[in-house]
Amino acid sequence: RFSNQSPFKELLDDPFSCFTQELMVKYHDAIAYRQRNNMSMPNFLQWCTLPAYDINFRIFAISEIRLFKQANHCEELLKILTESSEESIMIEIVKTLGYFQYTEAKDYLSGLLGTASPKLDIAILKAFTEMQDDSEETVRILKESVSAETDSYSRIKILKMLYEYSDAGKRALEELEASGEFDDILFKHVKC
User: Fold this and answer.
1) Which of 20, 30, 70, 179 is most deeply buried (CB count within 10 A of its CB)?
2) Rounded to two decimals, what is the model's pTM?
3) pLDDT > 90 in the chain, percent
């Protein structure tokens, strides 16, 4: 049963429950039904911050903020990001902030670059490109990240982001290719 006050009550009352893919689909479908029928929508933010809950459930809550376009939660998500040490939570928040083009997060995200895992770095760089501000600063950050990255797969992902970002990104990619600093095969992967 889907409660208006606490749609996840049944799940959260059981301390031994595990938030499975099946439950994700079930709850998402129930929430989508509510939206289609103009019924009240839950405030997902309240479940993003409770560390006692299954991490998959918290990731689900963050992704539902994005999927149901609750952009009004960006400021609080940024606050949660600054206090979080759980990589998968941080990545999901970064994806959401990028999706909503929340440029107020750029300074904090810039500070995180290079201090965390390559997965988080890639999520941050992708968020920058989604913010669509066509800034030379984003091009510079992407270029620097290509040079700093040692993993070829991650380097290709960053080069692809640079290439797809803007005309300035394409020019920067051409400069990097002409520099001879990187293997030509990387650029072939990006342009194919």
Assistant:
1) 70
2) 0.81
3) 35
